[in-house]
Amino acid sequence: MERLNGMKRTKGLLRLRIGIVVLALLSGYFIVDAMLPQTEAKVREAKSEQVQSQANLKPPKKDKLVALTFDDGPDAKYTVKILDILKKYNAKATFFVVGYQAEKYPGVLSRIVKEGHMLGNHTWSHKDLTKLNGQQINNEIVKLNKVIQNATGEAPKYVRTPYGAVSKKVTEAIEQNGQHNVLWNVDTRDWAGATPEDMLKNVKANLKPGGIILMHSFGGKKGDLSNTIKLLPKMIEELQEEGYSFVTVDELKSKSS
Ligand SMILES: [Zn+2]
């Protein structure tokens, strides 16, 4: 009897233990289940903090740089209007001038430099340099370097070859003078008489930080660059709203590399 009672007690205890374990497991399941959404929320919160801190690591707005470049000037009509607009918006630009124009307007050359812009060498007579021999290429560049140096006290650091035409010989001639050739990534096609609306659309579709925009300050279709003058304030305003700063080619190169 004693043994039987003992066995019953043992069975009873066993059932009780199983019951407790099942209860504990069930309540544990519910507790864990109830906690899950909170944990997920915490994970989400941590993730969003991470995203935010990554956003804080993005370069500040001033590093979203663009270089406006104006070719073929200077002149007394469009170049001065461009300089007035740039001054109004505190935007800096680079003017790739040609020799026969630079010789006529030394005052505009020195104004360009005085107002914080940069001068580049667009050759003496705007010829396709790939069709010239080494000596001729050198003359096209050196003659203009001297005119710029006389007007401003400094020889230009950069060359832009007319029509963007380049060959190994042309590059070698430029680099022998300690200069570098700089082309562009966005062509406004102001030289072809594009409308201000089309030019703005083109720039906004193709410009990336570190971009170089091609425009003109002399020449254009039938000598008319009035669309460039109409486009410029609107383009500067819209790009400044997007966080762009307008800098010279030199500043762009030193900060983008
Ligand atoms: Zn040109």
Overall description:
- The chain has 257 residues and is an alpha/beta fold.
- It has two domains: 1-57; 65-256, Glycoside hydrolase/deacetylase (TIM Barrel, Alpha-Beta Barrel).
- 56% of the residues lie in helices and 12% in strands.
- It contains nine helices and eight strands.
- The protein has helices at 2-57, 78-88, 99-104, 106-114, 134-152, 168-176, 196-206, 226-241, 249-256; strands spanning 65-71, 93-97, 118-121, 158-159, 180-181, 186-187, 211-216, 245-246.
- Strands 1, 2, 3, 6, 7 and 8 form a six-stranded parallel β-sheet that branches. It has a two-stranded parallel ribbon with strand order 4-5.
- Strand 6, helix 7 (196-206) and strand 7 form a beta-alpha-beta unit.
- Helix 2 runs parallel beside helix 8, helix 4 crosses helix 5 (134-152) and helix 5 packs parallel to helix 6.
- The chain starts with a helix and ends with a helix.
- Residues 28-56 have low confidence and may be disordered.
- InterPro entries: Glyco_hydro/deAcase_b/a-brl, NODB_dom, Polysacc_deacetylase_ArnD.
- One of its GO terms (molecular function) is metal ion binding.
- Keywords: Hydrolase, Membrane, Metal-binding, Transmembrane, Transmembrane helix.
